[in-house]
Amino acid sequence: MAQVTKEYESVNKLIKEIEESKVKTQEATIKTETLNHEIGKKVAEVEIKEETAKKVMDEAKEIKIDVETSVKENLDEKKIKAMQGIVNNPPEKIKLIVLAVNCLNPTGSNYENNWDGCKKLVMKAGNFYTGVKEFMEENGNGQNLTEKRIASAEA
Fold first, then answer.
1. CA distance linking residue 122 with residue 107, whole number of Å
2. Which of 32, 49, 74 is the last residue of a domain?
3. CA distance 140 to 98
4. What percentage of the chain carries pLDDT values higher than 70?
5. Band of the pLDDT at 125, cuts 50, 70, 90?
6. Poorest-confidence range of 21-25, 106-110, 150-154?
7. Could you say which of 109, 120, 128, 146 has the lowest number of CB atoms within 10 Å?
């Protein structure tokens, strides 16, 4: 009889362990399902962000093509040289455009990011013309645009 009692206790112990394992398994399953749900939501968010980023990149590419075309069609060294005559008191729109171009650093010269730096840029019309012309090229001087340079811009 002692043997039966011992086996009965052993079986009960195993049943208790199985029940505890079932509970732990159920808890782990619930946690896994919750995590899978959260992962699914994050994946969906990332997909939306990727799609948005793709749209922005596509728009940026279109704008880049438009700008490149406009520069090729309208960039004229004679017009840049003509700006030298008004460099001390330019119309506000011209000033803003030249400040923006100087910020892009098309000549690689690192003139100050203010109107004094812009005057130096405009006074070197040949460099200005060549720099803007080559800016869009893969290895053009203007490809070294930095956040620091943009942040320091006057305009």
1. 11
2. 74
3. 18
4. 86
5. confident
6. 150-154
7. 146
